[in-house]
Amino acid sequence: MIKAKKSLGQNFLIDKNILEKITSITDIENKTILEIGPGTGNLTSHILKKKPKKMIVIEKDNELAANLENKFKNQVTIINNDVLKVDETKLFKDKVIVFGNLPYNVSTEILSKWIINLKEHFWFECLILMFQKEVADRIIAEFNTSNYGRLSIICNWKLNIKKIIDIKPSAFFPKPKIDSSLLIFYPKKKFVKIKDPYNLEKITRIFFNQRRKMLKKPFNQLFNGDQRVLDKLKIDLTLRPQNINLDTYYKLAFEYENLNS
Fold first, then answer.
1. Structure pTM?
2. For the structural domain made of 6-187, what CATH number should be given?
3. pLDDT band of 5, cuts 50, 70, 90
């Protein structure tokens, strides 16, 4: 019997109704599918019933990867590796649909890696991903709310995001101590062009380093009090980081690049 490993943040999804709901969110027949962290293959089985053209799964756990090989034979291609070390763009010729019950301990790291490395052309049609509910709430948070922060800003830069459903611990084995949420991410057609995504990462890190303080100090640190930027973006330095909307942060990163180019 396969045992979940706490060290890898494993919680296997077992609720058949939820599994069916996940695989019915978008049409996957004759599509290329990538699944992250398939575990014991419960979601994999449901995906295969929908007749995808091709399916690749990435599973870090050696024991689980061997079990999947045994279970699915030639129906799926199994990559026994850490997803953080895999370049997904080299796995496919087609755009893919990504499913993932992401390990809770590295879910934001995986998502951030994908977003930071996104080029002009997206390698996926959509991402259908599971997170701890509190993480999902931060991803979809709107400005002027307490959950709004760096994760919200970075995730929403090139992607439209929608919550599908909240999922109770009873849907998993072993049961996690918290609720989960399923989100879907679609590429945006228009977004602020930032040459180096790490500049957006830097801007948000410095602004949210002291999220309860006013904007004046981090702005001066980054822009040396440049009045032209303030006037152009109409920023009030007496506000706090959570009071600035998404678009303004993207424009700040753009202006930061212009000043330092």
1. 0.92
2. 3.40.50.150
3. very low
